[in-house]
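Q: My labmate handed me this sequence with no annotations at all. I'd like to see what the chain might look like in three dimensions before we decide whether it's worth expressing. Could you predict it?
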Amino acid sequence: MASLNVGNLGEYLREQRRNAQLSLRQLAEAAGVSNPYLSQIERGLRKPSAEVLQQVAKALRISAETLYVRAGILDAERDRDEVETRAVILADPSLNERQKQVLLQIYESFRKENGFGTGETADEDGTERAADDDAGSRRTAG
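A: Here is what I predict for the chain of 142 residues:
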């Protein structure tokens, strides 16, 4: 199954590269990877790391998330739902920034409790921290 995802990724990358009117060599240089390695990715022979995909996405000016989904790194539907939920919370004009962050922390805590969350959420300043620091202590206390 992984080879199918990688093949799908390779075909998609080739299509995006051609749409951007870049040669394989030009894209490899812009992404900071070797020409043969990029060629192997496009032919479905190699599965690139998330870091390499991010570099390629940046060079192609496309979403790295799209490449992660194509490579099988992200579960498209579940992750899209999470991203959409977070975006709706962050875009709500009726909430102040602190309320948005608290709501995101609660949301992430519930996701983690149900086996889906990473346990990380961004504070107001953008730094990552455990989402359920307080929630975990409340659960064990009572």
